[in-house]
Write a structure and sequence with these properties.
The protein is an alpha/beta fold.
């Protein structure tokens, strides 16, 4: 599967029943790039300087691991969409679900990747793995090979061949990860996407002409940009199709 260079999107990687690797291009429809002035509003005051340093490495390094950490709804995926939209002409993005991380250790994936590198020599390749805790937590019997593969791809001898940056999102804390993954030289960048304080959330909603729902100590971006949904009253039992 292929895609026109410049079209924002990613290649969804799946293992077939024949043990081959399938790649289906998925165009990202919501491709509006985040204005630089909005970065501190969405992600905190230090986001602009962090993003500048990250992009410098993202655009020059051939391999390495980036970890985006934070609770659900705090904008990790939104940031990745922005990254894909801005770099569609220079980078080739691949996406792998947590259930398919085992592909990284298969001979078929090495063959698939060898073909990709031959065909797209002028593009930087980035593998995105969301909710990747399984592959990043300390090595044990059930994930030892996954962690070892990520170590080899990001900074091992295999990484010299793969020329692949790996971008992982996690919902757990980095203290729960295998320490070897966080070693300087292997880690391209690490960012914690935190909930916004009440003051930060109020500043964001005021700039967007939105109303801030409820009085909380902090807010996720999902809570700010999406109206609350009324939950059914569980104290009143409904029979059949009654409301």
């Amino acid at each position: 599967a292929g895609s026109a260079v410049g079209t924002p999107g990613y290649l969804l990687l799946k293992e077939t029943c024949m043990m081959n690797v399938e790649a289906h291009f998925v165009e990202i429809k919501k491709t509006a790039a985040i204005p630089e002035a909005d970065l501190p509003l969405l992600y905190g005051r230090d986001m602009t300087s962090w993003n500048e340093e990250f992009l410098q490495k993202f655009n020059t390094l051939k391999s390495g691991l980036t970890i985006l950490e934070g609770p659900p709804g705090c904008g990790k995926t939104y940031f990745i969409r922005n990254l894909v939209a801005r770099h569609a002409g220079t980078h080739r993005f691949y996406f792998m679900t947590p259930d398919d991380i085992g592909l990284l250790g298969s001979p078929e994936f090495i063959g698939f990747w060898s073909d990709q590198r031959k065909r797209f020599t002028d593009l930087q390749c980035v593998l995105i793995i969301e909710d990747s805790e399984k592959a990043l937590r300390p090595r044990a019997n059930d994930n030892r090979n996954l962690v070892s593969n990520l170590l080899n791809y990001s900074d091992g001898l295999l990484g010299d061949f793969m020329n692949l940056q790996i971008l992982c999102t996690i919902n757990c804390k980095s203290t729960d990860l295998d320490p070897a993954l966080l070693r300087p030289g292997r880690l391209v960048a690490h960012r914690i996407f935190s909930r916004l304080s009440h003051e930060e959330a109020l500043h964001l909603t005021s700039s967007r002409g939105l109303a801030l729902h409820g009085e909380q100590e902090d807010y996720s971006l999902a809570e700010i940009f999406n109206p609350p949904v009324d939950s059914p009253n569980r104290e009143h039992r409904v029979i059949g199709f009654g409301k």
